[in-house]
Structure prediction request, 375 residues.
Amino acid sequence: MKPRVQPGTRVAVLGAGSWGTTFAKILTDGGADVVLWARRPELAREITEGRRNSDYLPGINLPVGLRATSRLDLALAGAEHVFVSVPSQSLRENLIQAEPFLAPTATIVSLMKGVERASGLRMSEIIEQVLPIDPARIAAISGPNLALEIAKEQPTAAVVSSSSLETAHAVALLATTKYFRSYVNTDVIGTEFGGVLKNLIAVAIGIVDGVGYGENTKASIITRGLVEMTDFAVAYGAQPETLAGLAGLGDLIATCQSPLSRNNTAGRLLGQGYSYNDVIAQMQQTTEGLASVSPILELARAKGVDMPIVEQVRQVLAGTLKPRDIAPHLTTDSGAPQGERTIDDGQTHGSAAVWGAVKRTFDQLRHSGRGAGRN
Prediction:
């Protein structure tokens, strides 16, 4: 039986899209006193009075205790924990607006999976840069979390990451229900980059799906995609184990295989021949993967990390590569056979680290999550 959240714990959720609303439901069901901030007054009214968010979560009944408002000051009044779920490219602007109303000791939790296009910064880095806040009071949540499935209370898990294990535990306690389990770790870099990078691989999977390629192609790209994700994240200081956990492999599987994934859907439209502008026009919600391609490739070049999958996605978006010609798992600088993940192919953090991480992940699942703090 999970420890109870202290009654009356005030929580704010900023952003009433599908994920923000779903997470507000999780927190309310977990026992917190939640106020959800919606930019549009009519949406706030529908959530509070009708217990619905028909634009983003059609058919879902929201908890009786969940309230919504379009006033940022009212949403943040007395909030001990603030969960932020706004488009990544607007985070900086939203934080500036929210700062006057934030409690000095509030914990700020990122629910977003993106990097800022102009700076290449992760979401927790922007929070630390904009707000006068101790990094120990910042957390990020990631995992295989398709909003509509969770809103329907289909069981899943996520990882809460913070440089402070105490903060991670406090947030995980709030974000735990009978259908949603939160694990913890202290690898914020790996957790956030896992959430960003899997979106790019999901776009590639959508493209080959839209073209009509089968399971072999998709499995190859997913597997090599995990290698790219791990190489990139480790180059920036992440632990390889994190990329084999919920924030990496878990999120990658869910996002690549589900039609509920916006990134997968955007890729599929590209594969069917729609232009980038046509895809943007058809998508009703932000597709973080499309916005993250260029800044991620810039960051990869800065560390000398090769990302052929992401590079070919960029070429499809730019119109310089036909979707049918996408085959990033076949791309190599040499025609000679290469090691898949061995020391002699130059990947010094390769085979042993990734296999060890996968093994530890399965061990944790086998033993009902013991050792989850190392997720």
